[in-house]
């Protein structure tokens, strides 16, 4: 069974995420090499942290990485904070609750943890240079509000808290396109004052001359 990269941990900042990425880079922590199977998805709980490498659509069939992360959990819209994306787990649909009301469904629901507090998913992505070239790595952390105070931090784990992360090694992938400055988008005033007026259409010119003559 494929295990999370680390468990019982909360990510407080991008710096924490960079420490986890660097621990993966040094093989101190494992990277998730394939999509989670059904049993592994059911095992997701508060404090689970996964690091995985994005695999391009044109990569070799035997190449490393995952094209898309799937956890079989229904999420609401994303919210941005400090370069992280946060998703809140949706409540089950009425039809899903009806299906779970049967005895067999009840057993399945317990296996999926449907009677726990709804999870929150925290995601963060970076670009990193590897021996195989530049790659995009993702960190997915799951937690609940009530369990945050019980989860460990980087500071509680000496092997991680003492880790030195080289500056600039992990570049956030959420860097937006730079906005064009005002100087680039607006024409200079001097140019606008000296630009000749556009030529009128002959019909408009004739109508204007007729109006001027009438007055």
Overview of this protein structure:
This protein is α+β, with helices and mostly antiparallel strands. The chain folds into 2 domains: 159 residues, no CATH class; 33 residues, no CATH class. Helices cover 28% and strands 18% of the residues. It is built from 8 helices and 6 strands. Strands 1, 2, 3, 4, 5 and 6 form a 6-stranded antiparallel sheet that branches. The longest helix is centred in the last third of the chain and has 13 residues. About 9% of the residues have low confidence. InterPro entries: Gti1/Pac2.
Oligomer: single chain
* Structural class by sheet pairing and helices: alpha+beta
Indicate the mean pLDDT.
Answer: 81
Summarize the amount of helix as a percent range. Answer: 25-40%
Beta-strand percentage range? 15-25%
Number of domains: 2
Total helices: the number is 8
Entry summary:
It contains 8 helices and 6 strands.
Set out the fold topology.
Layout: H1 14-25, H2 38-42, E1 49-53, E2 79-81, E3 84-88, H3 94-100, H4 103-112, E4 120-130, E5 133-143, H5 158-161, E6 170-172, H6 182-185, H7 189-194, H8 202-214
Antiparallel strand pairs: 1-5, 2-3, 3-4, 4-5, 4-6
